[in-house]
Amino acid sequence: MDHQKPSTSSPYDWIPLRRRENDFSRRTSLTDYLLIVEGERFFVNIGFLAQHSPFFKDLHINALDMDVYELENVKFEEFHEFLLFLYPNRKPIEATNIDILMRLAHRFQTIEIVNEVSGFILRTASRSDADLVECVRMADRHHLKHVVLIIVGNIQDPQILMNLRKIKDLSLSTKYDVYRRLRALEDEDEDEPKTRINDAEASKPKKSRFN
Predict the structure, then answer these.
(1) Dihedrals phi, psi of 71, to nearest 5 degrees
(2) Between 210 and 90, where is the model more confident?
(3) Of 106, 98, 103, nearest in space to 134 by CA
(4) What region, left, alpha or beta, does residue 125 occupy, with left being phi > 0 and alpha being psi -120 to 50 degrees?
(5) 41 by DSSP, 3-state: which?
(6) Distance between CA atoms of 67 and 88, rounded to whole angstroms?
(7) Which residues are in the BTB domain (predicted)?
């Protein structure tokens, strides 16, 4: 006896599923849109995504007569990670998923992710010198100029700045920021002896004008 496929309302119902830890692969009462990424199904609430991303807001407004959209040039695993961060009970930011989140944050203009990643990098930079150096590289790689300026501007050890200048994959802009901070510290060191001399002069007892 031949087995027939059950009737389906959408040709995408027969796209194979990969096992995932959430329910994006299943339609629920709260989902109203189907996104296709590398042939995989993601059932989402397009209104919710529109609140976090101008890209999906435009999709929501301009595709009112559609309920399926295929995202091109996006990797399945990366988009899954992206959704895990946006949805309630979100997955925390970690050093291992920052590259993925920032890549898609730029693609979908999700400023919330950019802000969260910026905060994570700033907090991590204060843990150790090694973390600080890696955080400068990370902020530079993802064009987080404001984060680079904050981290570099708070470095007090010239040796750390010298080590940063030796990193080949830093952008010229960040290397210039490091150079400026190094010069600022050198200027402070040059001014310090003058300040001590002036303080010493000020502390000397002054001769009376009547002597």
Answers:
(1) -85, 125
(2) 90
(3) 98
(4) alpha
(5) strand
(6) 23
(7) 31-95
User: Do 20 and 33 contact (CB within 8 A), yes or no?
Assistant: no
- For residue 28, the tally of other CB atoms under 10 A from its CB is 10
What SS3 class is residue 35?
A: strand
What per-residue confidence (pLDDT) applies to 26?
84
Distances (CA, A) of 6 to 9, 10, 14, 29, 68: 10, 12, 10, 22, 21
Closest CA to 163 of 155, 106, 64, 86: 155
E strand or H helix at 178, and its extent? helix 172-203
pLDDT tens, position by position, 38-49:
999 999 998 899
Query: In the predicted model, is pLDDT for residue 208 greater than 50?
Result: no
Q: How many beta carbons lie within 10 A of that of residue 147, not counting itself?
A: 23
* Residue that wins the pLDDT comparison between 10 and 81: 81
pLDDT in tens, 53-107: 999 999 888 876 678 899 999 999 999 999 999 987 678 899 899 999 999 999 9
Between CA 152 and CA 93 the distance in angstroms is: 22
What pTM, to 2 d.p., does this model score?
0.69
207: its two tokens = 């001769």
Q: What is the spatial distance between Cα 127 and Cα 135, in angstroms, rounded to a whole number?
A: 10
